[in-house]
Design a protein that fits this description.
heterodimer; A: 73 residues; mainly alpha; 4 helices; B: 183 residues; two-stranded parallel sheet; elongated
Chain lengths: 73, 183
């Protein structure tokens, strides 16, 4: 059906296309998971500082990325 | 159910399926069926829809406005599977923790391709019903349109309303076209 039909070949790096697609899908998944978890932590009263530490990024970065979403939400 | 479908009606369903895939949607809805009917080249249906003021651009925009695109498609799932991640399990956990709307209700597209949603299935039933009550032997594109016009709380109905199409008048036009065909 598609190039991912053989998982062994794909996982061994034989199929670059599938590997790249997996990386893309993981990035998408990570983005959305992070947004969900940040919103969840905020609802539980976490500070931006604590969230930034947990995500291993700067407080400015996390605030810039999510503070406006919080206001909208 | 499909055995009474004319070639035109079957082809419309096939086009709706293709359009659903192209738009990256999970289900074939009434909007996708309406879009497919606009492209019918066998009878009066497309012409009726067009003279009522509909075109592909409007209908496609009406669909994408109302139907969310799944975040992940079957290729994502297959690629993740290849590196040992079961996307279904991951999404199921997210649903458990955050509810089905957590990702904007956008779950992975179906692996086996799109299915008809409830409203589309109902429209097909109403199309069959229309053919049966009229004692038409087969179910054509005209009946599909009658089926789509039968419910007023669907995506297709919303698109028609937005384009200021009068469903009662369109219905009368389709019925008249069927009479002409029979005569």
């Amino acid at each position: 059906m598609n190039e991912a039909a053989d998982p062994v070949a794909a996982a061994s790096g034989a199929d670059a296309r599938t590997g790249l697609r997996a990386a893309l899908a993981l990035r998408k998944l990570a983005e959305h998971l992070e947004a969900l978890q940040v919103a969840n932590a905020r609802r539980q009263g976490w500070s931006w500082r604590d969230i930034a530490d947990a995500l291993d990024v700067s407080k400015q970065a996390v605030h810039k990325k999510y503070a406006s979403r919080e206001r909208e939400g | 159910m499909f055995e009474r479908f004319t070639t035109a009606a079957r082809e419309a369903v096939v086009r709706a399926n293709a359009e659903t895939r192209r738009l990256g949607h999970r289900d074939i809805g009434t909007g996708h069926l309406l879009l497919a009917l606009l492209d019918d080249r066998t009878g009066p249906v497309a012409e009726l829809l067009r003279s009522a003021g509909l075109d592909e651009v409007t209908v496609r925009a009406g669909i994408t406005k109302r139907v969310s695109t799944p975040l992940f498609d079957p290729e994502d799932a297959a690629a993740l599977h290849a590196v040992g991640i079961d996307l279904d399990s991951v999404l199921a956990r997210i649903n458990e923790s955050f509810g089905p709307e957590a990702l904007g209700g956008r779950l992975r597209a179906r692996r086996g391709g799109p299915h008809m949603d409830k409203a589309a299935k109902h429209a097909l039933q109403r199309a069959l019903h229309a053919a049966t009550t009229r004692r038409d032997k087969s179910l054509g594109a005209e009946h599909l349109l009658l089926g789509l016009l039968a419910d007023d709380d669907t995506t297709a109905a919303a698109i028609l309303a937005e384009a200021k199409v009068d469903p009662a008048r369109l219905r009368a036009d389709v019925l008249a076209a069927l009479e002409n065909k029979a005569a």
